[in-house]
Amino acid sequence: MSPVLSETGFVAVGAAADVPALEGRSVLVDGRRIAIFRLPDGWAATDAACPHRGGPLQDGIVADHCVTCPLHNRRFDLRTGRQDGGDDAVAVHEVFERDGMLWMRLA
Ligand code: FES
Q: Which residue range or ranges hold the Rieske domain (predicted)?
């Protein structure tokens, strides 16, 4: 069981050092696969499964606060979850780093 930050609902999901710049990694939170991304100015977290056909968003290319799905190249804004130029959307979750640990809370 993951450590929980008292009464906030945030759970520890791993070490920040394990996520290189402009890359994503997947973690399991309450049985849900989540993609966490290191951005130039912070962190982002979304459901890991692309809403199109379940592609692994954590393996996508990250640029300009967006991730591009590696399967069919749909692009999602990591701040809003909205697809760039389309109607799909992926859930966005809260994530932050403290003392080298990543904490997140499901939306
Ligand atoms: S599965 Fe992501 S774009 Fe198709």
A: 11-104
User: How many angstroms does the Cα of residue 36 sit away from the middle of ligand 1?
Assistant: 18
Nearest residue to 47 (alpha-carbon basis) of 14, 5, 89: 89
CB 39 less than 6 A from any atom of ligand 1: no
Give the tens place of pLDDT for each residue, 21-45. Answer: 999 999 999 999 999 999 999 999 9
Residue ranges of alpha helices (H) inside the chain are none
Concatenated DSSP letters for 44-70? Answer: EEEESB-TTT--BGGGSEEETTEEE-T
Domains of the chain, start order: 12-105 (2.102.10.10)
- State the pTM of this model: 0.93
* Ligand 1, atom 3: closest residue by C-alpha: 72
Q: Contact at 8 Å (CB) between 100 and 15? A: yes
